[in-house]
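Input structure tokens:
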């Protein structure tokens, strides 16, 4: 069952970094915010990583941007690698949560796949915690960040599960399950390469709907059913 697979794997992916502010580590500036300190560190680090890359960003810059002294930064995160790990984990955790919740709906495979493609794409377009394409960061290797890649594998497992179930029930047809799984997953992830630069031109709901439509048409035994599946998927 998908729910047991996702729940079992999710236990291995624990949130990284200290999310609650600790006492006794003052800020370097008086610019206080209501945001927990660890979350503010991640927010400014995310921005700097986007602008300058991992190698081009120093912990001193992150601390300065968060209004902290550099030693105080290490009270929340051990080093820059741990900050980066927490930032990239934030990119995929909401989709894992969605998959776990969706497993309780017991939708038919075509509706479940449509909802997954649509949600995955919409999340990548709109969630401010999304860092960017993992392939933009050469430091983000499977060896150095197995937590991120393990969570990413959980998402592709959900795609694979819905495709396999749909083929079993005759609603999907394709030649190679693994290739189709990766291609469908990549449809949503590809928005990371262009959407942020053109976000003022495109409505994220339309991007998500169009991506889900294209993905389902490619594998449906009867592609014209996609409009029916879209209606059955509901608005979320």
């Amino acid at each position: 069952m998908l729910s047991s697979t996702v729940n079992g794997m999710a236990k291995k992916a624990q949130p990284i970094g200290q999310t609650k502010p600790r006492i006794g580590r003052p800020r370097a500036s008086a610019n206080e915010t209501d945001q927990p300190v660890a979350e503010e560190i991640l927010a400014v680090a995310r921005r700097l990583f986007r602008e300058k890359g991992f190698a081009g960003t120093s912990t001193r810059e992150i601390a300065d941007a968060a209004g902290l002294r550099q030693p105080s930064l290490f009270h929340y995160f051990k080093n820059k690698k741990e900050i980066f790990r927490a930032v990239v984990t934030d990119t995929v955790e909401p989709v894992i949560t969605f998959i776990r919740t969706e497993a309780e709906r017991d939708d038919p495979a075509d509706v479940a796949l449509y909802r997954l493609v649509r949600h995955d794409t919409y999340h990548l377009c709109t969630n401010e915690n999304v860092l960017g394409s993992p392939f933009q960061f050469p430091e983000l290797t499977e060896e150095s960040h197995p937590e991120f890649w393990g969570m990413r594998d959980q998402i592709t497992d959900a795609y694979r599960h819905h495709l396999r179930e749909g083929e079993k029930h005759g609603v999907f047809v394709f030649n190679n399950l693994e290739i189709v799984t990766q291609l469908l997953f990549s449809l949503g992830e590809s928005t990371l390469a262009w959407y942020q630069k053109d976000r003022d031109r495109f409505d994220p709901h339309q991007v998500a709907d169009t991506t889900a439509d294209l993905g389902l048409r490619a594998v449906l035994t009867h592609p014209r059913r996609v409009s029916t599946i879209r209606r059955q998927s509901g608005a979320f």
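Residues 80-102 form the longest helix (23 residues). The domain at 2-12+87-233 is CATH 1.10.357.10 (Tetracycline Repressor; domain 2).
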